[in-house]
C-alpha cells in the first residue's frame, strides 16, 4: 500500500512505535519495562508511568532509524484496546495529540486483530481463509480469517489466557516474570512426559485454563509434602510437562477447528506463539496433514508497533478513521465483520 503510517502500541508493558512505508516496516522500536520482574507480573500504574517516560524517545529513535520526518506521515494508528487502561491512555492521548498537530487521520486498532495482521508484514503470508490461534498474556482465541479485515471469533478462553497459564505456573515455581520464555528455556532440557497433568475437557472451541492451574498447584503441593526439594530437583521436567500439556491442549482445539472449517492454512500469533514447543508441534501437524502453517518472526510475536502500523495500513485503505472524541477501551470487543 502506498502510504506512510506510524503505529503506536502501549497496551501492556512495552512501549513500541513503528513506521510503515509503502508496504514495508522501516523501523520498529520497543522499550521494555524490566521493573515488573520485581512484582511477578505487570504493575499497572508503573507501566503507565514508564510509557510516559519512554514514548517520546521511542518515537524519536523510530523516526531516526526510518530516516523519516513527522511531516511525511499520512496517518497515526494506535492501540485502542484491549489492554491496561492507564497504558492505553498514554498511547491514545499521544496519538491524538500527534494527529491533531499534524492534521492527519487517527486510526484506532484492535490489539488482537493486529497480532493476526502481523502475518502480513513479511513473506510468507497466509492464504485466505485460514484459522489463527491467537495466544497472548491476556487472550486465547481461535479466529476464522476470511480477509484482512474480515474475521470471526470461533472460540476463546472463559477464564485465564494461555500466557497467564505459563506466567502463573512460573510464579508457583519461583521463576521470574514473564514466565513463558523462562519455562520454554528450562523445558528444553526436560521430558514433556515426565509428569501427567489433566487436559481440560472439550467445550466447542472454547478454552479454560483455570482447572489446569489448580491441578498444577495441587501437583506441586502434594509432591513437596513428600520431598521438600521437589521443585528444584525436577524443574526441567516440570516445565516440560506443563508446557507439553498447554501446547497439546491448544493444538487439539486448533486441529478440530481446521477440520470443521475445512481450511488449508493455519497461523499462530501473540506472545505465546514465540514458544519453541508450540512452533515445533505446529510444524509437525502441518507436515503430517498437508496444511500450510504460518509462524511470525520472533520480533512480531510479542507486542510490537509494527503490527499496529501494518493493521493501520489496511484500515487506512478502508478510510476507517475516527475523530478526537475516541477513548481507549480496556475490554474492546473483537471487530467481527
Ligand atoms: O502478546 P504479548 O506480548 O502481550 C499480550 O498481549 O499479552 O504476550 C505476552 C505473553 C506472556 O504471558 C508471556 O509469558 C508469553 O506471552 N510468552 C511466552 C513465550 N514468550 C512470551 N509463552 C511461552 N513461551 C514463550 N517463548
Ligand atoms: Zn499482545
Number of helices: 10
Order of helices and strands: EEEHEHEHEEEHHHHHEHEH
- Proportion of helical residues: 40-55%
Q: Could you give the order of strands across the largest sheet?
A: 3-2-1-4-5
Q: Roughly what fraction of the amino acids lie in strands?
A: 15-25%
Gyration radius over CA:
20 Å
Which structural class matches the secondary elements?
alpha/beta
The poorly predicted ranges are none
Quick one: how many beta strands?
10
The average pLDDT value, as a whole number, equals 96
Shape: globular
Topology readout:
Blueprint (H helix, E strand, L loop, with lengths): L3 E6 L5 E7 L2 E8 L12 H23 L8 E7 L3 H18 L3 E5 H7 L12 E6 L4 E8 L2 E7 L5 H11 L6 H9 L22 H17 L3 H4 L1 H27 L3 E5 L6 H14 L2 E3 L10 H13 L20
Parallel strand pairs: 1-4, 4-5, 6-9, 9-10
Antiparallel strand pairs: 1-2, 2-3, 6-7, 7-8
Helix pairs in contact: 1-2, 3-10, 4-5, 4-6, 4-8, 5-8, 8-9
Keywords:
337 residues; alpha/beta; five-stranded mixed sheet; 10 helices; 10 strands; binds zinc ion
Q: How does this model look, in words?
A:
This protein is α/β, with parallel strands linked by helices and 337 residues long. The chain contains ten helices and ten strands. The chain has helices at residues 44-66, 85-102, 111-117, 162-172, 179-187, 210-226, 230-233, 235-261, 276-289, 305-317; strands at residues 4-9, 15-21, 24-31, 75-81, 106-110, 130-135, 140-147, 150-156, 265-269, 292-294. A hairpin with a 2-residue loop joins strand 7 and strand 8 (150-156). Helix 3 (111-117) crosses helix 10 (305-317) and helix 4 packs antiparallel against helix 8. The protein is globular. It starts with a strand and ends in a 20-residue tail after the last helix. It binds 5'-O-[(R)-(carboxyoxy)(hydroxy)phosphoryl]adenosine and zinc ion. Zinc ion (ZN) binds at residues 111, 115, 136, 270-271, 303.
Amino acid at each position: 500500500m502506498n502510504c506512510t503510517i506510524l503505529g503506536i502500541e502501549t497496551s501492556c508493558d512495552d512501549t513500541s512505535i513503528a513506521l510503515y512505508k509503502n508496504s514495508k516496516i522501516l523501523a520498529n522500536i520497543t522499550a521494555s519495562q524490566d521493573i515488573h520482574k520485581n512484582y511477578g507480573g505487570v504493575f499497572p500504574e508503573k507501566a503507565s508511568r514508564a510509557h510516559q517516560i519512554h514514548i517520546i524517545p521511542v518515537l524519536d529513535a523510530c523516526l531516526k532509524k526510518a530516516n523519516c520526518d513527522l511531516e511525511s506521515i499520512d496517518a497515526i494508528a494506535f492501540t485502542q484496546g484491549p489492554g491496561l487502561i492507564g497504558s492505553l491512555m498514554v498511547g491514545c492521548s499521544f496519538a491524538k495529540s500527534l494527529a491533531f498537530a499534524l492534521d492527519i487521520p487517527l486510526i484506532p486498532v484492535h490489539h488482537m486483530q493486529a497480532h493476526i495482521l502481523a502475518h502480513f508484514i513479511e513473506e510468507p503470508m497466509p492464504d485466505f481463509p485460514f484459522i489463527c490461534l491467537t495466544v497472548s498474556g491476556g487472550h486465547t482465541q481461535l479466529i476464522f480469517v476470511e480477509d484482512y479485515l474480515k474475521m470471526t471469533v470461533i472460540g476463546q478462553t472463559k477464564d485465564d489466557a494461555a500466557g497467564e497459564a505459563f506466567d502463573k505456573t512460573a510464579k508457583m515455581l519461583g521463576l521470574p516474570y514473564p514466565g513463558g520464555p523462562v519455562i520454554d528455556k528450562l523445558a528444553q532440557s526436560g521430558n514433556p512426559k515426565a509428569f501427567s497433568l489433566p487436559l481440560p475437557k472439550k467445550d466447542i472451541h472454547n478454552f479454560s485454563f483455570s482447572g489446569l492451574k489448580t491441578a498444577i498447584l495441587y501437583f506441586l503441593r502434594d509432591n513437596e509434602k513428600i520431598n521438600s526439594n521437589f521443585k528444584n530437583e525436577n524443574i526441567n521436567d516440570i516445565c516440560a510437562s506443563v508446557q507439553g500439556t498447554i501446547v497439546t491442549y491448544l493444538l487439539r482445539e486448533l486441529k478440530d477447528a481446521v477440520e470443521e472449517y475445512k481450511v488449508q492454512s493455519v497461523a499462530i500469533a501473540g506472545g505465546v506463539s514465540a514458544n519453541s514447543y508450540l512452533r515445533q508441534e505446529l510444524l509437525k501437524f502441518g507436515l503430517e496433514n498437508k496444511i500450510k502453517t504460518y509462524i511470525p518472526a520472533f520480533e512480531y510475536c510479542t507486542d510490537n508497533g509494527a503490527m499496529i502500523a501494518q493493521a493501520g495500513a489496511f484500515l487506512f485503505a478502508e478510510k476507517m478513521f475516527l475523530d478526537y472524541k475516541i477513548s481507549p477501551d480496556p475490554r474492546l470487543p473483537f471487530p467481527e465483520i
